[in-house]
Design brief:
The chain has a single domain (about 10-210), classed as Aldolase class I (TIM Barrel, Alpha-Beta Barrel). The protein contains nine helices and eight strands. It has helices at about 20-30, 45-65, 75-80, 95-100, 115-125, 145-155, 170-180, 185-190, 195-210; strands at about 10, 35-40, 65-70, 85, 105-110, 125-130, 160-165, 180-185. α7 (about 170-180) links the parallel β7 and β8. α7 (about 170-180) runs parallel beside α9 (about 195-210). The chain is globular.
Length: about 220
């Protein structure tokens, strides 16, 4: 199996209780060129998370785009998603790898700590994420990161680097130029009046920077 590239627009789903609406807006972002989707819903109960994760897995397969589950390793295994994204207080990378297998994608939040990223790579993470770089409506209390951590990580690490936190089409180019391989975006795309058009703008920013990728 060829592991998908971690690059481009990495769409993180907003907290939406209505599964039909969630699928509709995610379809728009995929049609606009999102290269990965992360299912994150902090208001859903276990039954709703399972329903939504199954629906998103089906949708993402239609677009040949990886679905990553935020936090829940068991849920990722249940729906056979393409991987899981782990925070500092979630399951360990080693435990997630043992549970999901070698072919799945495991990402790790490293906040503004390069040493966390070094350790995550050592444990087998497939990508590391830094942020928040800008004020975030999704995580208003997140630790603040600067572009310098991206530059340092790019020089030191061998795994893709993801930027996250308050990213919009107005500030995305700055992080791409600093070395981000992918940008994780939630409100910056899902709250747009035209979700597909906003996603297309993100895709163009990567191509214009020279950090381009082929479409699926």
């Amino acid at each position: 199996m060829i592991r998908p590239e971690i690059e481009g627009l990495y769409a993180i789903t907003p907290d939406i209780a209505d599964t039909a609406i969630l699928i509709q807006v995610t379809r728009h972002v995929l049609a606009g060129g999102a290269r990965l989707v992360q299912y994150r819903n902090k208001i859903a109960n276990a039954a709703l998370r399972l329903e939504q994760a199954y629906s998103l897995a089906t949708l993402c397969r239609e677009f040949c785009v990886p679905l990553i589950i935020n936090d829940y390793v068991d849920l990722a295994a249940e729906v056979d998603s393409d991987g899981v994204h782990l925070g500092l207080d979630d399951a360990s990378i080693v435990d997630a790898r043992r549970r999901l297998g070698s072919e799945k994608i495991i990402g790790a939040s490293c906040y503004n700590k390069l040493e966390h990223a070094v350790e995550a790579e050592r444990q087998g993470a497939d990508y590391v994420a830094f942020g928040a770089f800008f004020a975030s409506r999704t995580k208003p209390g997140a630790a603040v990161s600067s572009g310098s951590v991206l530059r340092r990580a790019k020089a030191l690490l061998h795994v893709p680097i993801v930027g996250i936190g308050g990213i919009t089409t107005r500030n995305a180019a700055e992080l791409i130029c600093e070395g981000a391989d992918a940008l994780a975006v939630s409100n910056g795309v899902f709250s747009a009046p035209n979700i597909q058009s906003e996603a297309e703008i993100f895709a163009r920013l990567f191509k214009q920077s020279g950090n381009s990728y082929s479409s699926a």
